[in-house]
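Exercise 7.
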Amino acid sequence: MPAYKTCCKCKETKPINDFYKNRTRRDGVQVYCKHCQEALHRVYYQGAGKEVRKRYKKKYYATETGKLVKNKWRKKAEGVVREEMGVSYPSLYSLALFFRAFRAQNVPVVEI
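Solution. The predicted structure, written as tokens, is:
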């Protein structure tokens, strides 16, 4: 294993210790040095990350597993609201109508 590697981002040759480990790579380290990798993560989480996460969630919730997870959380939220309000509605449509009427009264809805 070489003692030095060139970063693909900044094009500087640096010691292997300046790169994060990556077992899937042939040389066992990332292609970007630690400094460049951290800069990329900073940019991602400050801006573009939100859009990427939204797209990922949309794509994930379209899968069968995602639908199950989404329904699980929806049912949990419905149960909490129903318990607090002391009412029972059989369907999501009825629950939506309930929320619409509830919001019309200018009463804050509990965020989950």
